[in-house]
Amino acid sequence: MSEADVRALEGELEALCASVDDMFARPASRENLRAMVRGLLSEVPRKNLWQLAEAAGHPNPDRLQGFLAKAAWDADELRDRVRAHAVAALAADDAVLIADETGDIKKGTKTAGVQRQCTGTAGRVENAQVSVHLSYGSGKGRTLIDSELYLGKGWAGATAEHERRCAEQGIPSERANAVATKAELARRMLERALAASVPFTYFLADEAYGQCPCTARLAGGTPGPLRPRHPEERGAAAARRAHPAGPRAAGAGAGGCLRAPVLR
User: Fold this and answer.
1) Rounded to 5 degrees, what angle do the CA atoms 197, 200, 203 make?
2) Mean pLDDT, the chain, as a whole number?
3) For the whole model, what pTM was predicted?
4) Shortest CA distance to 94 belongs to which of 145, 138, 142?
């Protein structure tokens, strides 16, 4: 977004940040939150802390680094509030949930979850951090509403080394004991969306997720190959609202395209 676009949204951005101010005890943390949000929305070419700090008028990234590393807030509660805000703005008859992963190429070995692994960002095996995201989209727009960090065999396991690495990075012990597949991470996010009554008509993902029974069963269908939504299905969402079926009664579209119960 251009600087003018960000300024035009100043009132809305301030209202959004103010709605979560109670989660940050220190005024400095609230100021840094606003600097981060504006910087991430800006035209800063590389969204690293040096450039975000410059965009905020800071002489160095110390304030933003301290905010991310040391400030205390409930990450799960903040995620839930952001999701509620996004859903309130984007909910529509054609709304969908989309699971997909992304990778960030890294050079070191200390970043949580980093290891040599396949990442679509590079199209090959690289030293990278990989995370799975859940997006919410409709004809009104789209945005991310949830995420889970993928921990491969170099991080999640039963050895003392696994425990040490995860403890150093503040990774909860329940995540450090065993590898959770990317499909399992998607299932957890879908489960949270269902628990929060996020309204959607389809859950979409590529074949790695669509073929996994754990996501298919939760979405109310069975796994199968991906296929496009046919013209005769355009009224399916309206029909389901008129004759709502239980969560397990809705059918499955293809591999990554699972018809979901309509949630009100």
Assistant:
1) 110
2) 82
3) 0.78
4) 138
